Amino acid sequence: MSGPHPPDQPGPDSLRLVPDPSLRVLDGGRALLGGSPLRVLRLGAAGAALVARWLDGDPVTPRAAERALADRIVHSGLAHPRYPASRWGPADVAVVIPVRDDTAGAARVADAVAGVADVLVVDDGSAAPVPGAAVRHRRPRGPAAARNAGWHRTTAPLVAFLDADTAPPPGWLDPLLAQFADPAVAAVAPRVRSLPGPGALARYERARSSLDLGAEPGPVRPGGRIGHVPSAALVVRAEALAEVGGFDESLRFGEDVDLVWRLVAAGYQVRYEPAAEVGHAPRASWAGWVRQRFAYGTSAAPLARRHGSAVAPVRLSVWSAAAWAALLLGRRGTGAALVATSAALLVRKLGRVGVPGQEAVRLAALGHLGAVRLLADALARPWAPLAWPLLRTRSGRIAAGLIAARHLVAWWRERPELDPVRWTAARLADDLAYGAGVCWGALRERSAGALLPHLTDLPGRSSVPVRGA
């Protein structure tokens, strides 16, 4: 990886660390546990003292050793960086707006980003040419080709991609540009929230948009809590785009996921920063929304061919898989023995790096319980079309009832502006449409990779990496 440095190095009071909600400080500060995927960072006495001060609010100084430790903590997802100001500004950013048959939307976005280095509207084969477009494709070539055509025409060091149906508010760039103080960061995405609107679909999208990744920041990586970010709103270093070859134009959907994963594979960092928020127009009809969810699902199989198990619908420990399989087969003793053995092995492993036995047992229990949720998610979404015949059986009807109950629990917790009946129906339709797309894509690609689970704790794999510092 080769990443450019920002115009100026951050000053001594620039970087502060904000702990991730998952962070647990153990063994007198010498062990940091957390992140996603879960990991343990082992510290020496000096490092533990430094981290304690940083978590109390002290800034990270520009000393190379301190910055290296802070970078390791940030890149592991144990804490998140905060800078009071950015050395980058809108004048360093070119905005690329791909558009097809939405001249008004492209004009609104272009007006909203005044002050940037350049605004490049790319007309991807609209029926009527978009006035003022920097590039026009005579035939639609897809969003990947449109975005590539735009960033290739600019010399700005940073490129912001904004879809024509987004609504960037004033100041949306500031929190994103601050993250580029880390020269390892290649791309930063804001939170994309569905705009309020009339009707049940708009209310559902406001609470459950597929583009909305939530209110917690973090690193973006395959298998992590934030596995991808959408290119509906995304800022990327132009040099990093050139290094990985930009968007893959052979992908009609999932091209943003593919770009992010290739950046990560190249050694770059990609971050999600919800302190910046961009609006997004919801679909106008339920039929259009179902088609969109289906289309998103079809991207899983092509992505699996390129990225293997990163697309796995469920990632769980082989111990959890075996334990729950035993319980489902009625072998309760075997299941209990597997749970106890996995807990004992984790206590032994983590005890070597200062994690108390009680904490290790808690992690083991949470892992086994979390496996149920992950399997339920897979059964409700990518595996749903395959599991449909099971509804004729008593076990299948019980599973469907539990899935519907899970959606009702989510309604109770989130309290969306939608009644529980329509909320549950929309969640079920959402899952089924996406799952049908996954299965159709797998048939089209003649590959089951997007449907296969990924098991950890196999030889050569570790569910809880341990690193020293």
From TrEMBL:
Sequence intervals crossing the membrane: none
Boundaries of every Glycosyltransferase 2-like domain copy: 117-207
Gene transcribed to yield this protein: mftF
Name of the protein described by the UniProt record: Mycofactocin biosynthesis glycosyltransferase MftF
InterPro entries, per the entry: Glyco_trans_2-like, MftF, Nucleotide-diphossugar_trans
Species in which this protein is naturally found: Saccharopolyspora cebuensis
PANTHER family linked: GLYCOSYLTRANSFERASE (PTHR43646), PRE-MYCOFACTOCIN GLYCOSYLTRANSFERASE (PTHR43646:SF6)
Gene3D superfamilies: Spore Coat Polysaccharide Biosynthesis Protein SpsA, Chain A
Species classification: Bacteria, Bacillati, Actinomycetota, Actinomycetes, Pseudonocardiales
